[in-house]
């Protein structure tokens, strides 16, 4: 007969095995969108996910996302949604792989971006609208006549359904960031989120940050003439033509309507000759041979001459994302296109939506208690800092917000990072010194300092 001790021992072993079995049964299965490892990727300690969220079941509209958890203590860090502009350019190829994501393509592999924004947040990159990057629709008519309203609605549905897959982030502080035409995308999405929250509380939206954004197209585009002139890109006489006979907003409006007037054609030809095709308008100090990040926002900077000279023969980002092993690792597929492109060539966007100002929506967000940061890379002539600064100042005046931080320098390390001014406790403007239209690409360290201060609600550093 078994002793009482051996019986107790056997029961203890059985209980231990049962506990292990229950632990295995109850432990969460790996998320189906989890990325095991990207080809050529250095080892990291954070998780990555990518895949599709269907936003329209009838038309089979599926938006592609790439999500990187924070490097350290992801459970306590906020959630940040990043949107690139265009309209029609990729948040994956531009934002994630060229600007503020954890990796950048280099040869056959990836290298770490030491100033990645996932040092401070869990960052979600969304390729929107459908037809951009890996995002697609089963019904190709979904690529026709896409508007700001359609894009905002699809982005809202995306977030709703994304939270079903990642419920642990639902109550996390949420920030929306983006640049260029995201000056339309971000405020319109935020507005829908606030409206949705009044029916059902879902989004814990705390703030938005807009880089070199289109907020009021006449102000933004017409500030280009003064920027060109003040930086020596055009002559005094051409500056007078540019401001007196055909300003840039008039030219863009005519261009989108296929009705460029003779006077605008003449003025723009003169501007193009003097500024030169060999100066990059997205950063007037950089040489022209840089990554595909500068494909972004070509839409809002139409070319007088359709001919383009691409001095960068190899495009690292495009090459990397067109590799089959990379697409497999990303759980991505090409639908209706042969190659992944930085900016979509199948999307038919309602370009005249650019004429609808979004600065008023920004004002309504501030009234709802949403923090707003508008920042400008100061070497960008496409959406110059002068237009953005005047729009922010005008909005502050309209909302009767006093300057709580006077215009001053801020520091990143031991160097001046830029200049800033704060109105009330919700609206601020900042420049990033030496930065291009895509600020995190050209000034990653300074951009990260700005981003961290924004998330923490702290003033930008006054001293080094």
From TrEMBL:
Molecular function per GO: serine-type carboxypeptidase activity
Family: Belongs to the peptidase S10 family.
Organism of this sequence: Coffea arabica (Arabian coffee)
Pfam families recorded: Peptidase_S10 (PF00450)
Annotated Gene3D superfamilies: 3.40.50.11320, 6.10.250.940, alpha/beta hydrolase
Compartments where located: Secreted
Protein name per UniProt: Carboxypeptidase
Signal sequence annotation: 1-26
Phylogenetic placement of the source organism: Eukaryota, Viridiplantae, Streptophyta, Embryophyta, Tracheophyta
Keywords: Carboxypeptidase, Disulfide bond, Glycoprotein, Hydrolase, Protease, Secreted, Signal
GO cellular component, one term: vacuole
């Amino acid at each position: 007969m078994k002793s009482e001790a051996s019986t107790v021992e056997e029961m203890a072993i059985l209980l231990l095995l049962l506990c292990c079995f229950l632990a295995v049964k109850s432990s969460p299965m790996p998320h189906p969108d989890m990325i095991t490892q990207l080809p050529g990727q250095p080892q990291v300690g954070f998780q990555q996910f990518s895949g599709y969220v269907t936003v329209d079941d009838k038309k089979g509209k599926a938006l592609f996302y790439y999500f990187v958890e924070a490097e350290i203590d992801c459970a306590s860090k906020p959630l940040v949604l990043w949107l690139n502009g265009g309209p029609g350019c990729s948040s994956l190829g531009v934002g994630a792989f060229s600007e503020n994501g954890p990796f950048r393509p280099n040869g056959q592999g990836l290298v770490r971006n030491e100033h990645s924004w996932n040092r401070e947040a869990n960052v979600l990159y969304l390729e929107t609208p459908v037809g951009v990057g890996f995002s697609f629709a089963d019904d190709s008519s979904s690529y026709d006549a896409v508007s700001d309203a359609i894009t905002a609605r699809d982005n809202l549905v995306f977030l709703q359904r994304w939270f079903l897959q990642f419920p642990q982030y639902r109550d996390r502080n949420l920030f929306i960031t983006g640049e260029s035409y995201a000056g339309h995308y971000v405020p319109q999405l935020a507005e829908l989120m606030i409206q949705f929250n009044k029916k059902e509380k879902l989004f814990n939206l705390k703030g938005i940050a807009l880089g070199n954004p289109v907020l009021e197209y006449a102000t933004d585009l017409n500030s280009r003439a003064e920027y060109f002139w003040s930086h020596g890109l055009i002559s005094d006489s051409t500056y007078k033509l540019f401001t007196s006979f055909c300003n840039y907003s008039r030219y863009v409006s005519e261009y989108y309507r296929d009705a460029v007037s003779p006077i605008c054609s003449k003025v723009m030809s003169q501007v193009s000759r003097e500024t030169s095709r060999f100066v990059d308008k997205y950063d007037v100090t950089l040489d022209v041979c840089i990554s595909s990040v500068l494909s972004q926002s070509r839409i809002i900077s139409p070319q007088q001459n359709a001919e383009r000279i691409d001095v960068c023969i190899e495009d690292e980002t495009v090459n990397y994302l067109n590799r089959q092993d990379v697409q497999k690792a990303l759980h991505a597929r090409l639908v209706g296109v042969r190659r992944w492109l930085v900016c979509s060539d199948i999307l038919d966007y309602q370009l005249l939506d650019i004429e609808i100002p979004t600065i008023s929506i920004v004002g309504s967000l501030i009234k709802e208690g949403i923090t707003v940061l508008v920042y400008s890379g100061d070497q960008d002539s496409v959406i110059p800092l002068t237009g953005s600064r005047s729009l922010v100042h005008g909005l502050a005046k309209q909302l009767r917000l006093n300057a709580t931080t006077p215009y001053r320098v801020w520091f990143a390390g031991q160097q001046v990072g830029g200049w800033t001014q704060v109105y009330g406790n919700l609206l601020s403007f900042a420049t990033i010194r030496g930065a291009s239209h895509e600020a995190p690409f050209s000034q990653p360290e300074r951009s990260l300092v700005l981003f961290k201060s924004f998330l923490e609600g702290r003033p930008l550093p006054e001293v080094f």
